[in-house]
């Protein structure tokens, strides 16, 4: 999709650049890592986006995860329209909030009580505060490559030694904040044991994407999550699963349902809002009761539990619980992963395609990626031509080598078959442009 094909998007982007930093309201949308000008979306329906220039694209970004039912699902649209008749926000408790809480507690194994917020970032920020408030400790452990939203104490990267405290991963974060966060490699039990023994009775919480999906897609080695659970229990540390991405996607109850490993707190977002801005955090009732107004940990939100957002989210969750689409979703993602692996094998391209449920990632590497360093060592420069070639052929992949691809229930058998063809030709094109790429 060259600049000359997209006059409307280009004009919009030029106007946006003057008014919005980088022209976007979230940085990855700017296409910096794949090059070119981002397209603007005029409308979206099912598995397809229609660009401002009238092109139709089969979408594997799915609004970065929320659109598990595809875009503009009629039942979600109807639920929002019905809620709209009653008003957009009340500032008092509303009936939707209770129904939403019942659904979450019913679907997510470890959640006994839950509080609604407006984004995944708010959910992780609040869960961290709660872990600290409930334990009276300050330090947090996170894992390299896991993303938990743009919370100060979580936008932290590893220091130089395995056990040094974290360094800020953004300007504007005081080193003293980052110093309360310990960053460890994922899938490394030894590093975890060492951190606990070096900081006895100091670690308030461990926050983890149980399947890291913001640096491609990494899966836990056998026994890793179980051992993490055991260490947290032994040390009185709050285990927080950030299931903003995996919640309701890997299974109705997320990775915790799939693996049987139970965290103390869970962060949710994305799918839970049905495409509206929603997040939530929940967990053990005794922990959640530390929150105001019952306890001393302050947390609040003017628009939290907003009726339109709750109506959309409730409908999205009910469609998952009642429709049980998980087998079909997984088989679509598997089909794409197999097509990619086959194309790469036939053409001698070293490619790993990790897949879990309806999500998959791409690493140009010759063996499976088990942690962030290995992800960084993959040949990400090959992703750019793959992305551009797929886009030219009508398939929209995430515009970054480190983002997972999502399949929705709206992707038809024909969409998947067409996408498999497109990805096969994209791999072919990369392999033909030679090893110098
Ligand atoms: C997207 C994401 C977040 C942040 O959610 P926002 O709604 O963008 O603030 C947090 N954690 C994980 C695992 C995510 O994928």
UniProtKB/TrEMBL annotation:
Pathway: Porphyrin-containing compound metabolism; protoporphyrin-IX biosynthesis; 5-aminolevulinate from L-glutamyl-tRNA(Glu): step 2/2. GO terms for molecular function: glutamate-1-semialdehyde 2,1-aminomutase activity; pyridoxal phosphate binding; transaminase activity. Its cofactor is pyridoxal 5'-phosphate. Its main location: cytoplasm. It is found in: Cytoplasm. GO terms for biological process: protoporphyrinogen IX biosynthetic process. The modification N6-(pyridoxal phosphate)lysine is found at residue 270. Keywords: Cytoplasm, Isomerase, Porphyrin biosynthesis, Pyridoxal phosphate. It catalyses: (S)-4-amino-5-oxopentanoate = 5-aminolevulinate. It is an enzyme of class 5 (isomerase). Its EC number is 5.4.3.8. One of its GO terms (cellular component) is cytoplasm. CDD domains: OAT_like (cd00610). Homodimer. Belongs to the class-III pyridoxal-phosphate-dependent aminotransferase family. HemL subfamily. This is Glutamate-1-semialdehyde 2,1-aminomutase.
């Amino acid at each position: 999709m060259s600049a000359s094909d997209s006059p409307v998007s280009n004009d919009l982007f030029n106007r946006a650049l003057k008014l919005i930093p980088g022209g976007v309201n979230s940085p990855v949308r700017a296409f910096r890592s794949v090059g070119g000008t981002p397209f603007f979306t005029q409308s979206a329906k099912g598995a397809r986006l229609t660009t401002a220039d009238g092109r139709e694209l089969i979408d594997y970004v799915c609004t970065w995860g929320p659109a598990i039912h595809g875009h503009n699902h009629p039942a979600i649209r109807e639920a929002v329209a019905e809620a709209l008749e009653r008003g957009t926000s009340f500032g008092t408790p509303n009936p939707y909030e209770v129904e939403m809480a019942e659904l979450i507690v019913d679907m997510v194994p470890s959640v006994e009580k839950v509080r609604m917020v407006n984004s995944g970032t708010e959910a992780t920020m609040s869960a961290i505060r709660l872990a600290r408030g409930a334990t009276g400790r300050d330090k947090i452990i996170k894992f390299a490559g896991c993303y938990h939203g743009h919370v100060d104490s979580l936008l932290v990267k590893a220091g130089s030694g395995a056990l040094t405290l974290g360094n800020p991963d953004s300007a504007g974060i005081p080193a003293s904040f980052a110093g309360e966060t310990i960053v460890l490699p994922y899938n490394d039990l030894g590093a975890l044991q060492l951190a606990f023994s070096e900081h006895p009775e100091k670690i308030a919480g461990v926050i983890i994407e149980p399947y890291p999906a913001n640096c491609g897609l990494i899966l836990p080695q056998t026994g890793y999550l179980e051992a993490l659970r055991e260490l947290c229990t032994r040390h009185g540390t709050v285990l927080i699963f950030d299931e903003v991405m995996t919640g309701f996607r890997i299974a109705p109850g997320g990775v915790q349902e799939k693996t049987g490993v139970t965290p103390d707190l869970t962060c949710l977002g994305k799918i839970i809002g049905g495409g509206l801005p929603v997040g939530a955090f929940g967990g053990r009732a005794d922990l959640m009761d530390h929150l105001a107004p019952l306890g001393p940990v302050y947390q609040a939100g003017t628009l939290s539990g907003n009726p339109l957002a709750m109506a959309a989210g409730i409908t999205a969750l009910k469609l998952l619980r009642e429709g049980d689409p998980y087998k079909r979703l997984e088989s679509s993602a598997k089909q794409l992963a197999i097509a990619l692996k086959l194309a790469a094998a036939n053409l001698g391209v070293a490619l790993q395609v990790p897949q879990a449920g309806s999500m998959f990632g791409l690493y140009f590497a010759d063996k499976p990626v088990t942690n962030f360093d290995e992800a960084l060592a993959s040949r990400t420069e090959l992703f750019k031509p793959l992305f551009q070639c797929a886009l030219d052929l009508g398939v929209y992949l995430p515009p970054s080598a480190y983002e997972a691809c999502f399949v929705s229930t709206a992707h038809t058998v024909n969409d998947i078959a067409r996408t498999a063809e497109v990805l096969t030709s994209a791999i072919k094109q990369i392999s033909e442009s030679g090893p110098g790429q």
